[in-house]
Amino acid sequence: MIARTLKDMTSQREINGGRISQQRYRRWTTFSLWSLTIIVVSGGAVRLTASGLGCSDWPNCQQDQLVADFEYHALIEFVNRLFTGVVTVAVALAVLGSVRLRPRRRDLVRLSLGLVAGVVAQIVLGGLLVKTDLDPRFAMGHFLLSMVLLWNAVLLQHRVSEPPRLKAEVERSTDRLTYLIRAVFLTSAALLVTGTIVTGSGPHSGSTKPEVASRLPFLVKDVTRIHSLTAMIVLALLIAAGLTARQRGIHTIEHHATNLGVLLLLQGGLGYFQYFAGVPAVLVAVHITLASLTWISVVRLYLAAP
């Protein structure tokens, strides 16, 4: 994906007078989406390998040292910071493409600038996370802001293939299926929040240093039950939406609902297994990866609503 995007930047076959094609811009937005997804996973790897303070300063790795030493935790944290550069390039392409696309569309420009604002906020939060010795509340905010960025990136990618919509054309649907899909979206957002509370209360603080191993003041088993109950509500609403779409022959929504249902079942099974297995870091990493993919699927279902 990265190599193809860089090739797109240098090729002149589709660029004419500084303009780019819709097809190329969609590829750039896809690059932005998946780079933002990967950095969620790499950020999770930093915490799960207890490398959160491998680079104990910001923006340098150490006080007077930009590049990390050849040491396990420092390298993991430093590589995650370096990947922020890839994300920055991807977001810059999204903005550049929205400006060069003809006819220029204000909705795409606004959405691409939203990615810029989100990445800047992430950088600030990342610095605060280091400065506060991995306060779990900042870790929660870091992850949830990542999910907002993924929502923005999916919406941008989706809108590229749609004609621009005028405000007068946007109507609030009162259809039962639309309400069900909106309910899936909202409860899925609540599922993400409860998931971060479980993580913030769990054993993986992000560092091996006992003085920074502070956790949220909740019992893991209690917040896990709330998280599991929320997941069951999401699944029940999703089943209702999928069955309604099938009855009406709306195959696109049925397809999205099926994909999302598979991801939710995988997440649920993995969540129970990792809980009873003592929350091993490897399974938590898989859980974070699936959570990102699940949220992307939720947003795509939401965008497919009538």
Count of individual helical segments: 9
Distance between the termini: 32 Å
Strand content: under 5%
The count of strands amounts to: 0
> Helix amount, in percent?
over 70%
Element order: H for helix, E for strand: HHHHHHHHH
Structural class, from helix and strand content? mainly alpha
Largest sheet properties: none
Instruction: Return the average pLDDT rounded to an integer.
Output: 84
Low-confidence stretches: 9-17
User: Which overall shape is indicated by the principal axes computed on the Cα atoms?
Assistant: flat
Task: Please give the radius of gyration in angstroms.
Answer: 21 Å
Give an overview in words.
The chain has 306 residues and is mainly alpha-helical. 72% of the residues lie in helices and 0% in strands. The chain has 9 helices and no strands. The longest helix has 29 residues, at 72-100.
Secondary-structure map:
Layout: H1 2-10, H2 22-48, H3 72-100, H4 106-131, H5 136-160, H6 176-201, H7 220-248, H8 251-276, H9 281-303
Helix pairs in contact: 2-3, 2-5, 2-9, 3-4, 4-5, 5-6, 5-9, 6-7, 6-9, 7-8, 8-9
